Amino acid sequence: MRKSRLTKFREGKVELVVPSLPKVLSKKAEVFYNPEKEFERTISVAFLRALRKKLGRRLKILDLLAASGIRGLRFATEVDGLGKVYLNDKSEVAYKFMRENLEGNKSKLRCEVKIFNEEANELLFSLDEYFDYIDVDPFGSPNPFLDAACRFLKRGGVLAVTATDTAVLYGARKRACFKSYFSKVEKVPFMKEVGIRILCKRVIETGAKYEIALRPIFAHAEKHYLRIYFSQDLGAERALHLLEQCGFLGYCKSCMRRYMWLGFNSEEKCKECGRKNVVIGPLFLGKIFDPSMIREMIKQSKDDRVEKLLKIALEESKLQVPYYYLTTEFASKLKVREPGLGTLLSKLNKHGKATRTIFSPKGFRTNLKIEKIIEEISHLPFP
User: Fold this and answer.
1) d(Cα 19, Cα 37) in Å, to the nearest integer?
2) Cys staple from 352: which of 23, 90, 264, 368, with CB 3.0 to 4.6 Å?
3) Alpha carbons 30 and 68: distance in angstroms, whole number
4) Are 269 and 297 in contact (CB under 8 A)?
5) Cα dist from 97 to 8, 286, 371, whole Å
6) How many Cα atoms sit within 13 Å of 150 on the Cβ side?
7) Which pLDDT tens digit goes with each residue over 70-114?
8) Are 252 and 277 in contact (CB under 8 A)?
9) How far apart are CA 207 and CA 148, in angstroms?
10) What is the pLDDT of residues 313-332, one digit of tens each?
11) Is the entire prediction scored with pTM above 0.90?
12) Tens of pLDDT along 256-269?
Protein backbone atom coordinates (compact mmCIF):
# COMPACT_ATOMS: atom_id res chain seq x y z
CA MET A 1 0.00 0.00 0.00
CA ARG A 2 1.44 3.37 -1.00
CA LYS A 3 2.45 5.53 1.92
CA SER A 4 0.52 8.81 2.17
CA ARG A 5 2.30 12.12 1.87
CA LEU A 6 1.88 14.35 4.91
CA THR A 7 0.80 17.96 5.14
CA LYS A 8 1.39 20.36 8.01
CA PHE A 9 -1.09 23.03 9.06
CA ARG A 10 -1.18 25.65 11.74
CA GLU A 11 -4.61 26.60 13.06
CA GLY A 12 -4.95 28.81 16.11
CA LYS A 13 -2.21 27.63 18.46
CA VAL A 14 -2.20 24.08 17.13
CA GLU A 15 0.35 22.61 14.74
CA LEU A 16 -1.32 19.79 12.85
CA VAL A 17 -0.04 16.92 10.73
CA VAL A 18 -2.44 15.01 8.44
CA PRO A 19 -2.23 13.07 5.17
CA SER A 20 -2.18 15.38 2.16
CA LEU A 21 -5.69 16.53 1.34
CA PRO A 22 -7.45 15.22 -1.78
CA LYS A 23 -8.78 17.71 -4.31
CA VAL A 24 -12.34 16.88 -3.20
CA LEU A 25 -12.94 16.15 0.48
CA SER A 26 -15.11 13.10 1.15
CA LYS A 27 -15.65 10.22 3.55
CA LYS A 28 -12.89 8.38 1.68
CA ALA A 29 -10.25 10.84 2.88
CA GLU A 30 -7.87 9.08 5.27
CA VAL A 31 -8.27 11.74 7.95
CA PHE A 32 -10.98 14.29 7.40
CA TYR A 33 -9.61 17.77 7.93
CA ASN A 34 -11.32 20.70 6.27
CA PRO A 35 -9.24 23.90 6.37
CA GLU A 36 -12.28 25.84 5.12
CA LYS A 37 -13.93 25.23 8.52
CA GLU A 38 -11.22 27.07 10.45
CA PHE A 39 -13.56 30.05 10.93
CA GLU A 40 -16.28 27.78 12.32
CA ARG A 41 -13.81 26.24 14.77
CA THR A 42 -12.65 29.72 15.81
CA ILE A 43 -16.28 30.56 16.63
CA SER A 44 -16.49 27.40 18.75
CA VAL A 45 -13.42 28.50 20.73
CA ALA A 46 -15.13 31.83 21.53
CA PHE A 47 -18.29 29.91 22.43
CA LEU A 48 -16.47 27.58 24.82
CA ARG A 49 -14.74 30.49 26.56
CA ALA A 50 -18.17 32.09 27.03
CA LEU A 51 -19.64 28.82 28.34
CA ARG A 52 -16.78 28.48 30.83
CA LYS A 53 -17.53 31.99 32.07
CA LYS A 54 -21.27 31.33 32.26
CA LEU A 55 -21.07 28.00 34.11
CA GLY A 56 -18.23 29.09 36.39
CA ARG A 57 -16.72 25.63 36.73
CA ARG A 58 -13.98 23.55 35.15
CA LEU A 59 -15.49 21.96 32.07
CA LYS A 60 -15.35 18.39 30.82
CA ILE A 61 -15.41 18.33 27.01
CA LEU A 62 -16.03 15.53 24.49
CA ASP A 63 -15.29 15.85 20.78
CA LEU A 64 -17.18 12.76 19.70
CA LEU A 65 -16.00 12.61 16.07
CA ALA A 66 -12.63 14.27 16.36
CA ALA A 67 -10.89 13.05 13.14
CA SER A 68 -7.52 14.82 13.21
CA GLY A 69 -8.25 16.20 16.69
CA ILE A 70 -7.99 19.82 15.60
CA ARG A 71 -11.10 21.17 17.37
CA GLY A 72 -10.42 19.48 20.70
CA LEU A 73 -6.74 20.44 20.61
CA ARG A 74 -7.68 24.05 19.95
CA PHE A 75 -9.98 23.91 22.97
CA ALA A 76 -7.19 22.44 25.11
CA THR A 77 -4.63 25.03 23.99
CA GLU A 78 -6.79 28.16 23.69
CA VAL A 79 -9.45 27.96 26.43
CA ASP A 80 -8.63 28.45 30.11
CA GLY A 81 -10.55 26.67 32.86
CA LEU A 82 -11.11 23.30 31.22
CA GLY A 83 -10.78 20.15 33.29
CA LYS A 84 -10.56 17.41 30.65
CA VAL A 85 -10.89 17.20 26.90
CA TYR A 86 -11.75 13.81 25.39
CA LEU A 87 -11.10 13.21 21.68
CA ASN A 88 -12.55 10.21 19.86
CA ASP A 89 -12.66 8.72 16.39
CA LYS A 90 -13.35 5.14 15.32
CA SER A 91 -10.89 5.34 12.41
CA GLU A 92 -7.56 3.73 13.31
CA VAL A 93 -5.76 6.07 10.92
CA ALA A 94 -7.43 9.11 12.48
CA TYR A 95 -6.52 7.82 15.94
CA LYS A 96 -2.88 7.46 14.89
CA PHE A 97 -2.67 11.07 13.71
CA MET A 98 -4.69 12.31 16.68
CA ARG A 99 -2.10 10.71 18.95
CA GLU A 100 0.76 12.28 16.99
CA ASN A 101 -0.91 15.70 16.99
CA LEU A 102 -1.51 15.46 20.73
CA GLU A 103 2.14 14.62 21.31
CA GLY A 104 3.29 17.47 19.07
CA ASN A 105 1.23 20.04 20.99
CA LYS A 106 1.72 18.77 24.56
CA SER A 107 3.76 21.77 25.66
CA LYS A 108 0.82 24.09 24.83
CA LEU A 109 -1.94 22.15 26.61
CA ARG A 110 -3.83 23.92 29.39
CA CYS A 111 -5.69 20.81 30.60
CA GLU A 112 -5.66 17.02 30.49
CA VAL A 113 -6.44 15.45 27.11
CA LYS A 114 -7.51 11.83 26.57
CA ILE A 115 -7.95 10.16 23.19
CA PHE A 116 -10.13 7.19 22.22
CA ASN A 117 -10.53 4.90 19.22
CA GLU A 118 -14.16 3.78 19.57
CA GLU A 119 -17.47 3.91 17.74
CA ALA A 120 -19.08 7.14 18.97
CA ASN A 121 -22.28 5.76 20.54
CA GLU A 122 -20.48 2.81 22.11
CA LEU A 123 -17.95 5.18 23.68
CA LEU A 124 -20.65 7.29 25.33
CA PHE A 125 -22.31 4.29 26.95
CA SER A 126 -19.03 2.62 27.94
CA LEU A 127 -17.68 5.80 29.57
CA ASP A 128 -20.98 6.47 31.35
CA GLU A 129 -19.74 9.99 32.17
CA TYR A 130 -21.51 13.31 31.88
CA PHE A 131 -20.06 16.27 30.01
CA ASP A 132 -20.43 20.02 30.04
CA TYR A 133 -19.98 20.15 26.27
CA ILE A 134 -20.33 17.47 23.59
CA ASP A 135 -19.43 18.23 19.99
CA VAL A 136 -21.04 16.21 17.19
CA ASP A 137 -19.44 17.09 13.85
CA PRO A 138 -19.94 14.23 11.35
CA PHE A 139 -19.50 14.03 7.60
CA GLY A 140 -23.19 14.09 6.65
CA SER A 141 -26.15 13.92 9.01
CA PRO A 142 -25.74 14.02 12.83
CA ASN A 143 -28.85 11.85 13.28
CA PRO A 144 -27.05 8.60 14.24
CA PHE A 145 -25.38 10.29 17.22
CA LEU A 146 -28.11 12.52 18.68
CA ASP A 147 -29.89 10.01 20.95
CA ALA A 148 -26.75 9.00 22.83
CA ALA A 149 -25.13 12.45 22.88
CA CYS A 150 -28.07 14.28 24.44
CA ARG A 151 -28.28 11.75 27.28
CA PHE A 152 -24.75 12.35 28.55
CA LEU A 153 -24.87 16.12 29.04
CA LYS A 154 -24.68 17.71 32.47
CA ARG A 155 -27.47 20.06 33.41
CA GLY A 156 -26.76 23.40 31.77
CA GLY A 157 -24.31 21.74 29.41
CA VAL A 158 -24.18 22.30 25.66
CA LEU A 159 -24.62 20.01 22.69
CA ALA A 160 -22.97 21.43 19.56
CA VAL A 161 -24.34 19.85 16.37
CA THR A 162 -23.02 20.18 12.83
CA ALA A 163 -24.71 18.89 9.68
CA THR A 164 -22.94 18.78 6.33
CA ASP A 165 -25.82 17.19 4.38
CA THR A 166 -26.84 20.63 3.13
CA ALA A 167 -28.30 19.31 -0.12
CA VAL A 168 -30.87 17.55 2.06
CA LEU A 169 -31.58 20.44 4.42
CA TYR A 170 -31.54 23.16 1.74
CA GLY A 171 -34.19 21.52 -0.46
CA ALA A 172 -32.20 19.83 -3.22
CA ARG A 173 -33.09 16.34 -1.94
CA LYS A 174 -36.66 16.59 -0.68
CA ARG A 175 -37.36 12.90 -0.12
CA ALA A 176 -34.09 12.45 1.76
CA CYS A 177 -35.04 15.35 4.06
CA PHE A 178 -38.39 13.78 4.84
CA LYS A 179 -36.73 10.43 5.53
CA SER A 180 -33.93 11.81 7.72
CA TYR A 181 -35.57 14.78 9.43
CA PHE A 182 -39.32 14.11 9.05
CA SER A 183 -39.83 17.53 7.43
CA LYS A 184 -41.03 18.77 4.06
CA VAL A 185 -38.53 21.10 2.45
CA GLU A 186 -38.39 23.23 -0.70
CA LYS A 187 -35.75 25.46 -2.28
CA VAL A 188 -36.40 29.02 -1.12
CA PRO A 189 -34.28 32.22 -0.98
CA PHE A 190 -33.88 31.86 2.81
CA MET A 191 -32.77 28.21 2.60
CA LYS A 192 -29.96 28.48 5.18
CA GLU A 193 -32.37 29.43 7.94
CA VAL A 194 -34.81 26.74 6.81
CA GLY A 195 -32.03 24.17 7.16
CA ILE A 196 -31.10 25.48 10.61
CA ARG A 197 -34.71 25.34 11.82
CA ILE A 198 -35.35 21.83 10.46
CA LEU A 199 -32.22 20.59 12.23
CA CYS A 200 -33.31 22.42 15.40
CA LYS A 201 -36.62 20.60 15.32
CA ARG A 202 -34.93 17.24 14.88
CA VAL A 203 -32.57 17.77 17.84
CA ILE A 204 -35.34 19.16 20.07
CA GLU A 205 -37.64 16.19 19.44
CA THR A 206 -34.76 13.77 20.08
CA GLY A 207 -34.14 15.30 23.49
CA ALA A 208 -37.84 15.41 24.29
CA LYS A 209 -38.02 11.59 24.08
CA TYR A 210 -35.84 11.52 27.21
CA GLU A 211 -37.50 14.55 28.90
CA ILE A 212 -34.48 16.67 28.00
CA ALA A 213 -34.99 20.23 26.76
CA LEU A 214 -32.40 21.24 24.16
CA ARG A 215 -32.78 24.98 23.57
CA PRO A 216 -30.91 26.56 20.63
CA ILE A 217 -28.74 29.46 21.77
CA PHE A 218 -26.59 30.15 18.70
CA ALA A 219 -26.55 28.99 15.09
CA HIS A 220 -24.74 29.81 11.88
CA ALA A 221 -24.51 28.34 8.40
CA GLU A 222 -22.30 28.34 5.35
CA LYS A 223 -22.76 26.71 1.96
CA HIS A 224 -21.39 23.35 3.07
CA TYR A 225 -22.47 23.08 6.72
CA LEU A 226 -24.94 24.12 9.40
CA ARG A 227 -24.02 24.41 13.08
CA ILE A 228 -26.22 24.89 16.15
CA TYR A 229 -25.44 25.06 19.88
CA PHE A 230 -28.10 23.73 22.27
CA SER A 231 -28.28 24.40 26.01
CA GLN A 232 -29.54 21.43 28.01
CA ASP A 233 -32.16 21.46 30.74
CA LEU A 234 -34.23 18.67 32.26
CA GLY A 235 -37.99 18.27 32.46
CA ALA A 236 -40.85 17.11 30.29
CA GLU A 237 -42.60 20.51 30.48
CA ARG A 238 -39.51 22.39 29.27
CA ALA A 239 -39.08 19.92 26.41
CA LEU A 240 -42.78 20.20 25.52
CA HIS A 241 -42.56 24.00 25.50
CA LEU A 242 -39.87 23.78 22.80
CA LEU A 243 -41.90 21.28 20.77
CA GLU A 244 -44.88 23.63 20.92
CA GLN A 245 -42.76 26.22 19.09
CA CYS A 246 -42.57 23.99 16.03
CA GLY A 247 -44.78 24.61 13.03
CA PHE A 248 -44.63 25.54 9.35
CA LEU A 249 -43.45 28.29 7.03
CA GLY A 250 -45.30 29.32 3.91
CA TYR A 251 -43.61 31.09 1.01
CA CYS A 252 -45.37 32.59 -2.00
CA LYS A 253 -43.13 32.60 -5.07
CA SER A 254 -45.44 35.08 -6.75
CA CYS A 255 -45.49 37.94 -4.23
CA MET A 256 -42.53 36.88 -2.01
CA ARG A 257 -44.62 36.84 1.17
CA ARG A 258 -43.54 34.64 4.07
CA TYR A 259 -45.93 33.17 6.64
CA MET A 260 -45.52 31.11 9.78
CA TRP A 261 -47.98 29.09 11.78
CA LEU A 262 -47.71 26.80 14.77
CA GLY A 263 -49.15 23.30 14.92
CA PHE A 264 -50.17 21.09 12.01
CA ASN A 265 -52.86 23.09 10.22
CA SER A 266 -52.15 23.77 6.55
CA GLU A 267 -52.18 27.10 4.70
CA GLU A 268 -51.62 26.13 1.08
CA LYS A 269 -52.71 29.41 -0.53
CA CYS A 270 -51.21 32.88 -0.12
CA LYS A 271 -53.51 35.07 2.01
CA GLU A 272 -52.97 38.04 -0.26
CA CYS A 273 -52.61 36.95 -3.90
CA GLY A 274 -54.31 33.54 -3.62
CA ARG A 275 -51.46 31.68 -5.36
CA LYS A 276 -50.29 28.33 -4.06
CA ASN A 277 -47.84 28.55 -1.16
CA VAL A 278 -44.65 26.58 -0.83
CA VAL A 279 -45.13 24.85 2.53
CA ILE A 280 -42.07 23.91 4.62
CA GLY A 281 -41.99 22.02 7.91
CA PRO A 282 -42.45 21.07 10.55
CA LEU A 283 -39.53 23.14 11.78
CA PHE A 284 -38.62 25.13 14.89
CA LEU A 285 -40.00 28.70 14.83
CA GLY A 286 -38.69 29.95 18.17
CA LYS A 287 -35.54 31.82 19.14
CA ILE A 288 -32.22 30.57 17.77
CA PHE A 289 -30.05 33.31 19.31
CA ASP A 290 -29.51 33.89 23.04
CA PRO A 291 -28.38 37.54 23.38
CA SER A 292 -26.69 37.04 26.77
CA MET A 293 -24.56 34.21 25.37
CA ILE A 294 -23.70 36.19 22.25
CA ARG A 295 -22.62 39.20 24.31
CA GLU A 296 -20.29 36.98 26.32
CA MET A 297 -18.93 35.42 23.12
CA ILE A 298 -18.11 38.90 21.84
CA LYS A 299 -16.19 39.60 25.05
CA GLN A 300 -14.29 36.32 24.74
CA SER A 301 -13.54 36.54 21.03
CA LYS A 302 -10.04 37.43 19.86
CA ASP A 303 -10.88 37.36 16.16
CA ASP A 304 -12.24 40.38 14.26
CA ARG A 305 -14.19 38.21 11.79
CA VAL A 306 -15.94 36.35 14.59
CA GLU A 307 -16.72 39.57 16.43
CA LYS A 308 -18.26 41.09 13.30
CA LEU A 309 -20.54 38.07 12.79
CA LEU A 310 -21.55 37.99 16.46
CA LYS A 311 -22.52 41.66 16.47
CA ILE A 312 -24.88 41.05 13.54
CA ALA A 313 -26.35 38.02 15.36
CA LEU A 314 -26.89 40.15 18.46
CA GLU A 315 -28.97 42.59 16.43
CA GLU A 316 -30.89 39.70 14.86
CA SER A 317 -31.72 38.33 18.31
CA LYS A 318 -33.96 41.38 18.86
CA LEU A 319 -36.23 40.38 15.95
CA GLN A 320 -38.41 37.32 16.43
CA VAL A 321 -38.95 36.68 12.72
CA PRO A 322 -38.06 33.12 11.56
CA TYR A 323 -36.95 34.05 8.03
CA TYR A 324 -34.97 36.68 6.12
CA TYR A 325 -35.11 38.40 2.74
CA LEU A 326 -32.47 38.94 0.04
CA THR A 327 -31.91 42.17 -1.88
CA THR A 328 -31.37 40.04 -5.00
CA GLU A 329 -34.88 38.57 -4.93
CA PHE A 330 -36.46 42.05 -4.90
CA ALA A 331 -34.24 43.20 -7.76
CA SER A 332 -35.26 40.16 -9.79
CA LYS A 333 -38.98 40.38 -9.04
CA LEU A 334 -39.31 44.17 -9.37
CA LYS A 335 -36.97 44.41 -12.38
CA VAL A 336 -34.86 47.10 -10.70
CA ARG A 337 -31.18 47.44 -9.89
CA GLU A 338 -30.27 45.66 -6.69
CA PRO A 339 -30.58 48.08 -3.74
CA GLY A 340 -27.62 48.73 -1.44
CA LEU A 341 -28.26 46.91 1.81
CA GLY A 342 -27.06 49.72 4.09
CA THR A 343 -29.29 52.30 2.36
CA LEU A 344 -32.28 49.97 2.40
CA LEU A 345 -31.91 49.17 6.10
CA SER A 346 -31.72 52.87 6.92
CA LYS A 347 -35.03 53.41 5.12
CA LEU A 348 -36.75 50.38 6.66
CA ASN A 349 -35.71 51.30 10.21
CA LYS A 350 -37.73 54.52 9.91
CA HIS A 351 -40.90 52.41 9.79
CA GLY A 352 -40.04 49.34 11.87
CA LYS A 353 -37.07 47.19 12.73
CA ALA A 354 -34.63 45.78 10.18
CA THR A 355 -31.15 44.31 10.48
CA ARG A 356 -28.58 42.35 8.52
CA THR A 357 -28.47 38.58 8.90
CA ILE A 358 -25.47 36.32 9.44
CA PHE A 359 -26.97 33.87 6.94
CA SER A 360 -26.24 35.98 3.85
CA PRO A 361 -24.24 39.14 3.05
CA LYS A 362 -27.20 40.23 0.89
CA GLY A 363 -29.81 39.25 3.48
CA PHE A 364 -31.86 41.23 5.98
CA ARG A 365 -34.43 40.46 8.65
CA THR A 366 -37.37 42.78 9.31
CA ASN A 367 -40.75 42.89 11.02
CA LEU A 368 -42.22 45.04 8.22
CA LYS A 369 -44.76 43.66 5.78
CA ILE A 370 -43.72 42.89 2.23
CA GLU A 371 -45.72 45.84 0.85
CA LYS A 372 -43.66 48.29 2.92
CA ILE A 373 -40.38 46.71 1.83
CA ILE A 374 -41.41 46.93 -1.83
CA GLU A 375 -42.56 50.54 -1.38
CA GLU A 376 -39.23 51.60 0.14
CA ILE A 377 -37.21 49.79 -2.55
CA SER A 378 -39.32 51.40 -5.25
CA HIS A 379 -38.53 54.87 -3.85
CA LEU A 380 -34.80 54.31 -3.56
CA PRO A 381 -32.67 56.38 -5.98
CA PHE A 382 -30.68 54.22 -8.36
CA PRO A 383 -27.64 55.50 -10.24
Assistant:
1) 17
2) 368
3) 10
4) no
5) 12, 41, 57
6) 28
7) 999 999 999 999 999 999 999 999 999 999 999 999 999 999 999
8) yes
9) 10
10) 999 999 999 999 999 999 99
11) yes
12) 999 899 987 766 77
